[in-house]
Amino acid sequence: MGVAQARGLGGEPPSAGPNPLGEPTEGRGGKEGRGGKAGKVGSTDYNDGILRIAREEPALSTFFVDGEVFGSIFANASDRANLSVTYGFAVSGGYRWERLGLLLRLEQNTWVATELDHEVFQGAVNIGLGGEYRYFEGRARASIALGPSILLSDTLLDESGEVGLFFLLRPFGVRWPIRGGWTLVFDPLSAAIVAPVLGRLPLVMVEYRTSLACEARF
Fold first, then answer.
1. Is the pLDDT reported for residue 171 higher than 50?
2. Phi and psi of 99, rounded to 5°?
3. Which of 89, 91, 100, 216 lies in the 20 to 30 Å Cα band around 146?
4. pLDDT tier at 152, thresholds 50, 70, 90
5. What is the rounded average pLDDT of the residues 41-47?
6. How many angstroms separate the CA atoms of 130 and 194, rounded?
7. What is the spatial distance between Cα 125 and Cα 37, in angstroms, rounded to a whole number?
8. CA-to-CA distance for 148 and 109, rounded, in angstroms?
9. According to the model, what pLDDT value does residue 157 have?
10. DSSP letter at 52?
11. Sign of CA pseudo-dihedral 203, 209, 213, 218
């Protein structure tokens, strides 16, 4: 009778009943076993995590264009001590691959003679081809550009049309993304060499600039 009572009237072992702790059972064919619903939830969370990360990452590649104004009150011109203030505007455009980018820059660099009557010169047009690197999750940028510098106005020693060298280094630019794909970019300090005349009496301007730009990407 002991064996019969343990098996019940039908000779089968009694049912275990629902799990009092509410945990899924691990039966071979059960829907809540190791390959059942519990494992599916974990897979769903994993997939959601991948989708969430993909949405937060920046676009892998994009075109961009920006307009910039800049100025410098700390400029040093070789043999032209009266040229110490410069300002101007620039337009840049290029293409980015994640952190790296290729850019083309066109700028008009105006010079101010600070002695006597503060005469303003058209200065030079500078063209630079270069690259950039974005870091701090795209919130900062460093860039470099190199190309020709073309003298626009006559001086006491030079004639307009002279062609020399232009170099620009911007080690740290702060980027503020705003709505609609627009970004403000502030460069507190950058260094530019504007040398439109490289003859026997060179005209070489070393400018320490501060600039503000508005960028659009598409």
1. yes
2. -85, -25
3. 216
4. very high
5. 42
6. 16
7. 68
8. 13
9. 79
10. H
11. positive
Please report which helix (H) or strand (E) contains residue 70, including its range: strand 61-77
**Are the C-beta atoms of residues 65 and 102 closer than 8 Å to each other?**
no
pLDDT of residue 48: 47
Distances (CA, A) of 1 to 12, 13, 14, 16: 14, 14, 15, 21
User: What are the structure tokens assigned to 47, written together?
Assistant: 């997939």
Whole-angstrom Cα distance, residue 1 to residue 7?
10
| Contact criterion met (CB below 8 Å) for 122 and 152 | yes
User: Can you give the pTM of this predicted structure?
Assistant: 0.69
Side chain identity, residue 57 = E
What is the rounded average pLDDT of the residues 35-55? Answer: 42
* Cβ contact 160:142 at 8 Å: no
Type of residue numbered 165: L
Tokens linked to 151: 């003298």
Both tokens assigned to 141: 């940028």
User: Among all chains, which residue has been given the structure tokens 């320490």?
Assistant: 208
Residue 192, SS3?
Answer: strand
Closest CA relative to residue 86, chosen from 123, 53, 54: 123
- Residue 208: what are its φ and ψ, rounded to 5°? -110, 105
